TrEMBL record:
This is beta-galactoside alpha-(2,6)-sialyltransferase. Keywords: Disulfide bond, Glycoprotein, Glycosyltransferase, Golgi apparatus, Membrane, Signal, Signal-anchor, Transferase, Transmembrane, Transmembrane helix. Belongs to the glycosyltransferase 29 family. It is a single-pass type II membrane protein. The gene is LOC101891865. It comes from Musca domestica (House fly). The keyword Transport does not apply. The lineage of its organism: Eukaryota, Metazoa, Ecdysozoa, Arthropoda, Hexapoda. CDD domains: GT29_ST6GAL1_2. It catalyses: a beta-D-galactoside + CMP-N-acetyl-beta-neuraminate = an N-acetyl-alpha-neuraminyl-(2->6)-beta-D-galactosyl derivative + CMP + H(+). Residues 1-29 form the signal peptide.
Length: 480
C-alpha cells in the first residue's frame, strides 16, 4: 500500500512529465529568445533566475537592491501611455522590504455587500455614548488629510504625499507623548522599568513586549474564582477554537475614517474578525465587512443600560471578551468590589440567560502588564497612568493566536475626517490622538510592529503585524 508521502511524490512527477511534454512541442511553447524579445518590447526585464517585471523611474541608474527570495507585487500606471505595468522582484537575504497588504489586485471601488445577521444595539448608530473618552481640549482636527490623499498609488507624487502625511501624523503623536501627564494617579500605578535606555531594550522587538504581557481571559481554575460560585459562570471552552486553522486575523477599529474605505471584502477574507464594543456592521458592510468572530467590550458597555448588554442582539452569537482595569496592584478579590464599573452583575445575567455563550472576562492583571510593556517601549517618557485602549488590549489578546494580524484604521490614514466613529457624526480629535488612554504610545508601538509598506498604512489604513518566533522572545524585561 502506498504511503501518503509516496502518492504526493508521484503526483509531482506526473505534473513534471506533463510540463516537459508541453515544453518540447515547438507549436505550444515559445523559446527563451522569443520571451526575451517580447519582454523588451514591453519595457520588462528577463533574468535567468526568472521573470522580473519592474517599473523603472530612472533607467540610467542600475539597481542596487539586494537579492531576496520573496516576490512582491505592486501596480502603477504610466500617464503618458495610459497603461499599467506590473512589478515583480526577486530578492535575496538582507533587510526585508515592506510589502503591500494586498496579495492580489482588487478593485476598491467595487460594490461588495454581504448580508449581516447582526442588529445594532440601542442608540448605537445615532446618539451613541462614547465610553472611556475624556473630553479633549481641542476637539477640532487641525490636520486636513484630504491634501495628502492620492489615487495613483505608486507615482512619485503619491509617494511624496504619503511620506509627508506620515511625518505629520508622527509629529502629532510624538508631541502628544511628550505632553505633561501630571494627572491624578487614580489606579495607584507604581512601576519602574527594569532597564533605562539599555541596548537590550532598544533592540528588543515590540511584538515580544506585547506577547510577554500575556493578556489572557480568566478561567474557572484561577483563584479566587475556583472557590467562588461566580467562577462557575466562566465558559469551559478556550477563547479561540481550532487554533491550527487560524492563518489571518483582522482587527477592525471603530474610527470615523472607516467610512468610505470600501474594505469590507478585505476584512471578511480573514479567519478571525475582531470588533469593539457596540460597533455595528448592518448598513456598513461595504466599508467594515459583516463577519464578526469576537467583540472586545469595556465595562461601561457591559454596565450602562443604554447599551443593553444582556439583551441587545449585537452581543449574541459572538465571542465576548469584557474588561475592566481595576487597581494597578489590586488583587482579584479587590477587583470584584473596586472595579471601575460593576460589569459582574450584567455579566452574570448574560451568562445565565445564554449558558452556551462564549463570554469571557479579561484578567485585569494582564491589562496592567500590557501597560508596562507600553511604558517599556516609551522608555524614559512617562505615560498616562491609565489602562490601554480596547484596541490595544484586543491586539495583545489576538497576537499569540494568529500568525498575521491586520489592524484596520488604527493608525490614521488619509481618510482621517475627525469623526470618532464611522457610525456617528461626533467630531473629536481625542478619539484618534488620545486624551485619556496612552493612545499615542499605543499607535507608535503598533507602527513599530508593522511589516506593511507606508502606502498600505497611510493610504489604505492597514497595519500588518506578524506573530514573533518564540526563540526571538527569549528575554523577559518586565520581570514576570
Amino acid at each position: 500500500m502506498l504511503r501518503p508521502s509516496m502518492i504526493k511524490t508521484l503526483k509531482y512527477l506526473t505534473l513534471l512529465i506533463a510540463v516537459l511534454q508541453i515544453q518540447i512541442q515547438p507549436n505550444c511553447a515559445k523559446t527563451i529568445n522569443e520571451i526575451k524579445r517580447q519582454l523588451n518590447r514591453r519595457d520588462l526585464k528577463y533574468s535567468d533566475r526568472g521573470l522580473a517585471f519592474q517599473w523603472n523611474v530612472d533607467k540610467t541608474q542600475p539597481s542596487s537592491q539586494p537579492q531576496r527570495h520573496d516576490i512582491s507585487t505592486t501596480f502603477t500606471s504610466n500617464h503618458e501611455h495610459n497603461r499599467g505595468v506590473l512589478k515583480f522582484k526577486h530578492h535575496g537575504r538582507g533587510s526585508r522590504k515592506r510589502r503591500s497588504v494586498f496579495h492580489v489586485r482588487w478593485n476598491p471601488n467595487e460594490r461588495f455587500i454581504v448580508e449581516s445577521n447582526e442588529n445594532p444595539a440601542i442608540n448605537s448608530s445615532k446618539l451613541a455614548p462614547h465610553p472611556r473618552l475624556k473630553v479633549s481640549k481641542t476637539t477640532k482636527l487641525n490636520l486636513n488629510a484630504k491634501h495628502y490623499l492620492c489615487h495613483d498609488k505608486l507615482s512619485p507624487v503619491c509617494a511624496n504625499k504619503t511620506q509627508a502625511f506620515k511625518e505629520r501624523v508622527l509629529k502629532i503623536f510624538e508631541k502628544s507623548l511628550m505632553e505633561s501627564v501630571n494627572e491624578s494617579n487614580f489606579y495607584n500605578v507604581d512601576f519602574k522599568p527594569v532597564f533605562g535606555d539599555s541596548f537590550e531594550e532598544q533592540y528588543y522587538p515590540s511584538t515580544c513586549l506585547v506577547m510577554e504581557a500575556g493578556v489572557r481571559v480568566l478561567k474557572r481554575k484561577d483563584p479566587p474564582f475556583n472557590k467562588l460560585q461566580f467562577g462557575k459562570l466562566f465558559p469551559k471552552q478556550k477563547l479561540f477554537r481550532q487554533k491550527k486553522n487560524i492563518k489571518t486575523c483582522a482587527i477592525v477599529s471603530s474610527a470615523g475614517s472607516m467610512a468610505g474605505s470600501k474594505l469590507g471584502r478585505f476584512i471578511d477574507s480573514h479567519d478571525i474578525v475582531m470588533r469593539f464594543n457596540h460597533a455595528p456592521t448592518r448598513g456598513f458592510e461595504v466599508d467594515v465587512g459583516s463577519k464578526t468572530t469576537i467583540r472586545v467590550v469595556n465595562s461601561q458597555v457591559v454596565t450602562k443600560p443604554e447599551f443593553d448588554f444582556a439583551h441587545a442582539p449585537i452581543f449574541q452569537n459572538v465571542t465576548i471578551a469584557a474588561w475592566d482595569p481595576g487597581k494597578y496592584n489590586g488583587t482579584l478579590e479587590d477587583w470584584l468590589t473596586t472595579s471601575d464599573y460593576d460589569l459582574f452583575t450584567n455579566y452574570e445575567i448574560y451568562r445565565r440567560r445564554y449558558p452556551k455563550s462564549r463570554a469571557f472576562l479579561i484578567d485585569p492583571h494582564s491589562i496592567w502588564r500590557l501597560w508596562q510593556s507600553l511604558q517599556m517601549f516609551a522608555g524614559n517618557r512617562p505615560l498616562r497612568k491609565n489602562p490601554p485602549s480596547s484596541g490595544f488590549i484586543g491586539l495583545a489578546l489576538l497576537l499569540p493566536h494568529c500568525p498575521v494580524v491586520d489592524f484596520i484604521e488604527y493608525m490614521p490614514s488619509t481618510r482621517l475626517n475627525g469623526r470618532c466613529h464611522y457610525y456617528s457624526k461626533e467630531i473629536n480629535s481625542a478619539c484618534t490622538f488620545g486624551s485619556w488612554h496612552p493612545l499615542a504610545a499605543e499607535k507608535l508601538m503598533a507602527l513599530d510592529m508593522n511589516v506593511a509598506d507606508d502606502m498600505s498604512v497611510f493610504q489604505f489604513g492597514i497595519l500588518r503585524m506578524r506573530r514573533p518566533d518564540k526563540l526571538l522572545c527569549g528575554f523577559n524585561f518586565l520581570g514576570y
